[in-house]
Amino acid sequence: MSFIARSFHPRRLLRSAGIGLITAVFLLVVLAGLGVAAVRIFTAQQAGSSLDLDGARAYQAARAGIEWGLFQQLRNNSCASASFALPLDSVLGNFTVTVTCTRIDGPQDAGGSNANTTRWRIESIACNQPSGGVCDNRPGASPDFVQRRLEVQV
User: Fold this and answer.
1) Which domain range does residue 122 map to?
2) What is the pLDDT of residues 5-23, one digit of tens each?
């Protein structure tokens, strides 16, 4: 019995009892930090993916504006500038398109008349947060602002 009494010493037990607690707290802090980092990375990735999708939609909305301007020019041989919202029940429903048409007259011949080389420049700007119902070339104030600009000449 004297052997058991010697190996069980209260001072040795007290010295090693705090190591397990410190190790457990350290592991919990490290795992919590990894969890927070994973959540932040996931959130940033989701926001980037959402902006990428909105950018593709804005491009398609700007393309729709170009096609509208081309249709107006080919049908009426004139193109008036306009700004319109796309239908709300469509995928592009939260975008507004501003189409600007500019007539570009060709060079004049020796008699001073137009040499029948009139062209049109059609510019289409699509955005998801218009200013006063119009998309212009100014950047938006919101971090989820998306805008695409296309231009053609016919």
Assistant:
1) 2-153
2) 555 555 655 556 678 888 8
